[in-house]
Design a protein that fits this description.
Length: about 400
């Protein structure tokens, strides 16, 4: 069948018609174990009854009014996010890329409000992914994604990952902020050491810079706390979140401390759909579930169990996978074989995962996954590794000159 969708995705020939918790049911009736969660979006799984109830109730009342008027549910969600974080202010939008654009604007506007409009440059790090808009592509610096779209947006200085001395040398009179993901998801599930984040905080404080965290993938419980920065003990000045904030409904936000947000006065930023009543009802329902006693303790316990089981897989199949990475239920398997082959082998075992940079396969199960479902997932990973081992052995045996 001819598709009229713009062909910007190399889509797998697989479609789903419904979901139940950590399971997806394809249009042919096959059940798949979901270790992708819509790329860290469906944190509470599929068709969570609390979210279904919230969006159904709100859909019968009011969908959209615009930000020309007060939206009580948005004010409530903003207050809750601030109470649970370092922040004092929140701006709601529709996606992670929009959240990052807003965070970049807030960082630059802060210096302009302080009478230093020339301070607009932001230090970023190799391996980062901050979105697909022109500015966020420039921040990420991936040449593959930038090619063909004209000159990159000015104002981003990219450095190798993890070298604090290079960071200090890169700071100049135009430097405004430092932007980093506490865990690089797309970049290969690389965890930033807390010591490096602390060093960045000290550098920012010493030079009057703002520290900006991209928690679009790590935020909302993925690492075992509501926000990854809380595990590191280093608070940013600005933070972008999205993905799991709506657990499947499009919603993003950027949060700022009062001082960092001082330049964002009426007229400096806006969004037609951002913070609409439908999105805010879902966001509040997500927080209702995640703030229940024991939720994050349970995530942390399950994450430890998953990591232990994955380490055993690495021990059994060192010719297929070599390392377990990550924090919480943001896990990565560093592959020895091409990561795409492992993703395909897992899909053949009726389990969906997603590749990342550095030849890594990301494992992003819903946070509500059970111990039994984790065990089932690891069993499928084990079978996929065995499948790849057999396949490679057969290919080697079939090569000309192979002993036989």
């Amino acid at each position: 069948m001819t598709s009229h969708l713009l062909p910007t995705y190399a889509r797998v020939d697989l479609a789903f018609e419904r979901g139940e918790g950590v399971w997806l049911i394809a249009t042919d009736g096959e059940r798949y174990l979901d270790f992708t969660s819509g790329v860290a979006v469906n944190a509470l799984g599929h068709a969570h009854p609390r979210l279904v109830a919230a969006i159904t109730e709100q859909a019968q009342k009011l969908w959209h009014v615009s930000n020309l008027y007060r939206i009580p549910e948005g004010e409530r969600l903003a207050a809750r996010l601030c109470e649970l974080s370092f922040a004092d202010t929140v701006f709601f939008c529709n996606s992670g890329a929009e959240a990052m654009e807003g965070a970049i604007k807030m960082a630059r506007k802060f210096h302009a409000a302080n009478g230093q409009p020339d301070r607009f440059r932001i230090i970023t790090f190799e391996g980062a992914f901050h979105g697909r808009t022109l500015a966020t592509l420039a921040a990420g610096g991936n040449k593959k994604y930038l090619e063909g779209f004209g000159p990159p947006v000015e104002g981003f200085d990219q450095l190798p990952f993890g070298d604090i001395e290079l960071v200090k040398k890169a700071i100049g009179p135009q430097t405004a902020a430092i932007l980093i993901e506490p865990v690089q998801g797309e970049g290969g599930v690389r965890v930033v050491p807390p010591s490096f984040l602390r060093a960045l905080r000290e550098v920012c404080d010493a030079h009057g810079l703002l520290l900006v965290f991209d928690e679009i993938q790590t935020g909302m419980g993925r690492t075992g706390e509501l926000f990854a920065y809380q595990r590191a003990g280093v608070a940013p000045d600005i933070m972008a979140i999205a993905k799991a904030l709506g657990s499947g409904f499009p919603v993003g936000a950027f949060l700022g401390a009062t001082e960092a947000a001082k330049g964002m006065v009426p007229g400096t930023h806006g969004s037609t759909f951002g913070g609409n009543p439908l999105a805010m009802s879902v966001g509040n329902a997500v927080l209702d579930v995640m703030t229940e006693p024991g939720f994050f303790t349970d995530v942390q316990r399950k994450a430890i169990g998953l990591r232990q089981r994955l380490a055993e897989v690495v021990d059994r199949y060192p010719d297929i996978v070599s390392e377990v990475r990550g924090e919480g239920l943001l896990a990565g398997l560093k592959a020895v074989v091409p990561s795409g082959e492992l993703v395909d082998a897992l899909r053949a075992e009726k389990m969906i995962t997603v590749a990342a940079g550095d030849n890594v396969v990301r494992l992003l199960p819903p946070l509500i996954i059970s111990e039994d479902e984790i065990a089932e997932g690891v069993a499928r990973i084990d079978r996929a590794c065995a499948r790849l081992r057999r396949s490679r052995a057969e290919q080697k045996a079939a090569q000309p000159g192979a002993a036989g």
